[in-house]
Amino acid sequence: MVQTQKIGKSTTVAAQASKARVLIAVMLFVTVVINYMDRANLSIAMPAIADEMDLTKAQQGLLLSAFGWTYAALQIPGGWLVDRIPPRLLYPGCLILWSVATAFMGVIGGFVALIALRLLVGVFEAPAYPINNRVATAWYPERERATVIGFYTSGQFIGLALLTPFLSWLQSVLSWHWVFIVTGTIGAVWGAVWYAFYREPRDSRANDAEIDLIRDGGGLVDLLDEQQPERPAVTRNDVATVLGRRKLWGIYLGQFCLTSTLWFFLTWFPTYLVEYREMDYIKSGFLASLPFVAALVGVLFSGVFSDFLLRKGVSLGVARKGPIIVGLLLTVAMIGANFTDSTAMVIVFLSIAFFGNGLASITWSLVSALAPERLVGLTGGMFNFIGNLSSIATPIVIGLLVTDDSFAPGFVYMTVVTAVGIASYVFLVGRVERVRS
């Protein structure tokens, strides 16, 4: 046992603690890269699929939204599972199943079959982000958590920035079918790797000093400890708690607005470049990667800066909400695309907007800070459920608003939604403190 004085305890413990949690951060990062690669692969292939199958804009919107129907609907059951099944078992099971469904999208043709398989991908990806939050809550003290969340969240942008050009090239050289076969195979392999290497803090290579560092800093190292009594079933009061608190509704609505921008980039953005900006697949793949690079810079800066503010004594509310609100304000720059004919300026406006989206993407740190302690999974599920209703709304609404000649109504819709998100964090969240169950 590490012996320390009360004053300066965290510094002494930190100096002797092992670094097992670094490996966990890397594993979360890689998983998020694969997670978002399998969400975005359809948007890359969509122009070719639409051309081959002669799909209307409304049909494209329906296919692009199919993932979101099951993904959003199963967030609450997914959160329930996260509170009961260890991440070592639940995550690889989900990874392998959604990867198999992804690979079959490249094998089985037809509009209806693609919708059905995309629905299955949504089913098995549903617990993914609640699992990420569950792992982060167990493995990291509060003062490190935003940095870690920012790091693994950056995986969605790094993966898309680097892989979008590659997948666009793969499609141009072979066909859109191989986009799904390759991404599905990668995910299935990583599922086996997760099972082989992930462990809970007390079952891992983390030494006692690191466990103390995590626990004393607010990390819940004993979540799902097998030695704890069996958890009771979720009650009506539990559901009423996660649905009846103003603070929680603030982050729920804010997440819907934040992820609306993300889902624009994950669904309609490549089609916008190919059809409305008349680019070929390879050029559009390169330009589509630039906003993701900007978002990567935003999300990495956000987590580090938020934890820096916290260590300097700034309140938890300012440290966590400040980057989110500023990021949403920057996202409004997207409307600038409606006022220029220059493709270069469009990319600039959208890169600023997606930098802002990345800056605001530490919202899961508020789930960790606000969720009732024994309802972390359920709260995360509700947060992700409401937030990812945008995965349904964004593709469909934009598909109905845009015309063959103009994408402008789509950008207006995105700007209005972002303004609602700003109001949600300003007026509903209030003081950042854990909600009592």
Task: Let me know the number of strands.
Answer: 0
Coarse structural class: mainly alpha
Largest sheet: none
User: Helix-strand pattern, N to C?
Assistant: HHHHHHHHHHHHHHHHHHHH
The N- and C-terminal alpha carbons lie at a distance of: 33 Å
Low-confidence stretches: 1-14
Helix content, binned percent: over 70%
Question: What share of residues are in beta strands?
Answer: under 5%
Name the shape in a single word: globular
Average residue-wise pLDDT:
81
Number of helices: 20
Cα-atom Rg, whole angstroms?
21 Å
Describe the structure.
The chain has helices spanning 9-16, 20-53, 57-73, 75-82, 87-105, 111-125, 128-139, 142-173, 176-197, 208-216, 236-243, 246-267, 269-276, 281-311, 316-331, 343-359, 364-370, 376-387, 390-401, 408-429. By secondary structure, it is mainly α. Helix 5 packs antiparallel against helix 6 and helix 8 packs antiparallel against helix 14 (281-311). The two termini are 33 Å apart.
